[in-house]
Sequence to fold (1014 residues):
Amino acid sequence: MPDWKPEIRERLAGVKLGPAREAAIIEELAQYLEDYYAELRSNGAMEAEAYQQTLGELNGSELLARELRREDQPAEPIVFGTNRRGNMIADLWQDLRFGARMLMKRPGVTFVAALATAMGICANTTIFSFVHSMILRPFNFADQERLVVVWERRSEAGEDRDRVATGNFMDWREQNRSFERLIAVEQQYFDLSDGDQPERFNGHLVTAGFFDALGVKAAYGRTFLPEDNEPGHERVVALRHGFWRQRFAGDPSIVGKTLTLNGKPFTVIGVAPADFNYPYHGGQLWTPLVFDSRTRNDRGRHYLDVMGLLKPGVSIPQAQADLEEIARGIERRFPETNSGRSVFVRSLREDAVRGAAVAAPIGMGAAIFVILIACANVANLLLARAAGRRQEIAVRLALGASRRRLIRQLLTESVLLGIAGGALGLLLSVWAMKVLSRGIPQDFAQFIPGYERFGMNWTVFAFTLLASVGAGSLFGLAPAWQAAKTDFNDALKNGGKGQSSAGSVRRMRGALVVAEIALSLTLLISAGLLIRSFAETLRADLGLRPENVLALQVALPRDGYQEESQRIDFFARLLRRVEGMPEVVGAGAINIVPFSGMGMSTTSFQIVGQPAFPKGRQPIIHHRVATPGYFHAAGMALQKGRWFTELDDAQAPPALLINETAARRFFPGRDPVGERLKFGDGERDTSEIIGVVADVKNEDLEERADPTAYAPFAQKPGRQMNLILHTRQDPTPLASAVRSEVRELDRGVPVSQVKALSRMIDERLSSKRLLTWVIGAFAAAALLLAAVGLYAVISYVVAQRTHEIGVRMALGAESRDILKLVIRQGLKLTLIGVSLGLTGAFALTRAMSFFLFGVTATDPLTFTGASLLLGIVAIIACWVPARRATKVDPLIALRCE
Amino acid sequence: MQSINAQKFERELKKGGAELLVLSLLEARQRHGYELRKLIETRSDGALKFNAASLYLLLYRLEKRGWIEGRWVEKAGERRRRFYKLTKDGKKALAAQRSIWESFVAAINRITRPENA
Fold:
C-alpha cells in the first residue's frame, strides 16, 4: 500500500496550518485515499493504474488549500507557492505593472483624472512653496530659532512696535543677561557720487556683530570686525550682492576700493551673499553704526531697529522679563522720556512674516478645497470605470484573488494615477510660481522676507510627492471599497452590468458630486468676496488724484545748504523750472509721499486754550511739510479755510493745514480754523490752523486716514523733499528732464525714488491683487471640476437608465419630459450641494474679514451671485447628457437589454 | 406554492446542489468522508462524482459554516475515523435548500413535461 501522506503534504504545502490540525487533515485524507485505493485493487485494478486513479482524487486540491489557508490564517494574503516576504515585493511590482497597463487601457479617463489631480496638486504645491519660503523659512540664518527682534512698547498708546532710542538700546545691551548679541540697525540714505550727479540709495548702519549674529559670511572680502564700530576708525562699507552686480558689474576687485558716500570716503570691505537681504527695507549697503557721546544718551528720538541673538537655552519670555526689568529702571531714572515705555521681544521669524501669515491660511484652505474637489472628481471617474471593470474583478475573485489583494491592486493603481497627476501638477506649479513671482513688483518684493526664495526646492518637491500619494490613496478608497463588495456571481451573470450594487455606486457618486458642489461654492463665494473687496479698494476715495503724477526725491547734501533760506531758495527755483516745462500742469513738493512706504513722521501736541494733556497721553498727529503747489499737483480738495500761499513764508505767523480726520477727532463739533496747535516751547512752535483738507490715505488703501497736519515748506524747510508733478500724459518719461534741471541748479544734488504715484498705489495693491487672483483661479478650477463631476454622474445615470428612458419614450413621453427627468436629478444634487456650500461659506468666510474692505464676510450679493453661477453651470452640465437621453431610440434602447 | 427566486437558485445551483447532497446524506446518521463519496456515486448510479479534493473542500466549508460537525471516532479493532454529523443550523439549512430544490424541480417539470400529456 503506497504512503499517501507525502503526496497530500506536498499539495497542501504553504498552507501553514497548526501542526495538530495539519496532521489531522493529512490523516483524514490519507485514510480516504487508502480506502479508495484498496477498493480499486479489490475490483481488479493493476497497482499502477490504481495508484494513478487515486492520485486523481487530489486534482483541484489548490482550491482546498486555499480554503484551508483562509480558514486558519485570515491575515495571510493568498499567494501560491512562494514565501511571503518575496511576494510582497513581487506583488508590488506586479501591481505597478498591471496598474500602469490598466491606466493606459483607458487613456481618456486616465488623462482627465490626471489633469484633475494635477490641478489640485498644482494649487497645493504653489501655496506650500509660498508658505515654506515666506512663513516657515523666510530666512536661512544659522540660529534662526534664537534670533529675536526687540521693540519699545507703549501699552497706553496701544503701540507694540515702536522703534528704539539709542540711550535705551545702550542700557539694554550693557545690562542684559539673556543675549549673546544685541544689535541696533539704523536706516539711512546714502548718496553715492563718482564724479557725476550723485545717486541715492537706501542703506543700513549696524552695530558690532550684525553679520555674526545672523551667521552670515561675506561672498567676497569680509564682514565687519569689532574695531570697525569704534569711533574714529576708518569708514568701511559692505555691499548687497544685487547692488554690487548692478552698480559695479559684479567686479570682485571692488573689495579694497574707496567709494564716496555722503561726501566721505568709505572702503569696500566685502560683498554679502546673494540671498542676504536683511533687514527687508530695500537697503543696498551696510556700514558700521558708531555712537558718539551725544547720541549714546539720546532717549527722545526713536529710530533704531533692534535685533538680538539669545544665549542658548534662554527663552523669549525670559529675555522679555530681563529687558522689562531694565526698562523699569530706565523709566525711574528718565521719567520725562521713558514713562510708559516698556519692551516687546518677539521671534524674528514671527515678526517678519506678519503680513504673509495672515494671507496664508486663506490660500492653504482654498488649496485644500481644490484638491478635495479634484479627489472627489477622480474618485467619481474611477467609480464609473470600476463599474465597467466589475466583470474583470469578478473573474479575478473567482480565480482565487483575495479581496484584500484586489483592494491593494486598485489602490496601487490609483496611487500611480496620483503620482502621474502629481508630476503634471509639479510642472504646472513651476509655471504658476513663475507667473506669481512676477505678480509682485521687484521694488516691492524686496520688502517681503523670503520672497526671493519662493519657488521649487527639495522640500517643496517632497511635499508634492507626499500630496500626490495622499491624493491617490484618497480617491482610490471609494472605488476599491466598491470593488471589494463585488459579488462575483452577480457580476459574471450580468455581463458586468450588475444590478445589486449599482444603487450604492450611484449613491456614492451622488454624494461625491454633492461634496464637490458644496466645496466649490464655498470657494466661489470666497473668491467673489475678495474680488468685490478688491473692486471696492480700487474705488476707494484716496483723497488725491494719482493719474499722471510723478514723484521724485530731491535731497540736498549734508555739507551744504546750512541756511534755511538756501533750502527755500533751491526748491523755489527748482519748482519754477519744472513748472515751466510744457508737459507739466502743476508742481509742488512734500517731505513724505503718500503710498511710498517712506514711513511716517508723527509728533505730539497741545491745543492752545485747552487743558494740557498729561505726559505720555498727548495726542499724536502725522506731520508733513509741503509747498503750496503740492495740494494742486496732487489734486487734493480744500474743505474749509484757505490754502497755503507764497505769503506763508518764514516771516509770516506759522500756519497749518489739518485733514478732516484731525478736525473731527481733536475739534469735534467745532470749526478748527483759527485754533492753534503747540508742538514745542519755541516761539515759532505754535501754529495756527488756516484750513482743513480732504483725508489722504497714508500707506494702505483700506486703512482709515490718520490725523495729519501740513506745515508750509517755507516755514519748516528740510533738506529732503519730493517733487510732485502733475503732467498731461504718462509722467514717467519726464524723469530725465527733471534730473537735468536739478543738475543744472546743483550737480551735487541726487535725484532718487522716481516713481509714478499710480505705480506706488499699484505696488501697495499687489499682494492683495495676487491673493485675489490666486483664490479666483482656485475657484475657477473648482467650478470646472464640479461641472465635470456633475456631467460625468448625469451621463452615467443616463447610460444606466437608457432602457427605462426607451420604455418611457415608447409609451409616449416627450423629449421635454425626458429632459426634465434627467435635469431634475442633477438639480437635486446641485441643490443639496449648494445648501451645504452656503452653510460652509457662512462659517468660513468670517476668517477672511481681515482682508475684506467695503464688503462684509456674509455679503448677500456675493452669496446669491456665486450660487446662481454654480446653478447655471450645473444646468449646463446636466443639459448635455439630458439632451443625449432624448435622442435615445426606444427600439435600440429596449433591444440593448 | 412558494415562488422561486430563480436568480438565487441559479447562483446556488452548482455549489448548493453539492451541499444539498451532503446535508441530505448526513440527515439520518453521521458518516465519514469516503462513505459520503461512495453513497453519492452509488445512489446516483454514477451520474454524480466527487473526488477527495472537492469533497473535503465542501466538508471543511460546511463545517466552518457550522452546518456540520466533524469529530474523530475510535471503534474497537478499527483505526480512528473522522465522522461528520448535521448540526441544528445544518438541519435548518437542509430544510430550506430542500424546499427550494423541490420547488425548482416541480417548476422545471411543469415546463418540460410535454404539453399534451
Q: What stands out?
A: Chain A touches chain B at residues 24-25, 28-29, 31-33, 35-36, 56-61, 63-64, 67-68, 71, 489-490, 493 (CB under 8 Å). Chain A has a mean pLDDT of 86. Residues 757-800 of chain A form the longest helix (44 residues).
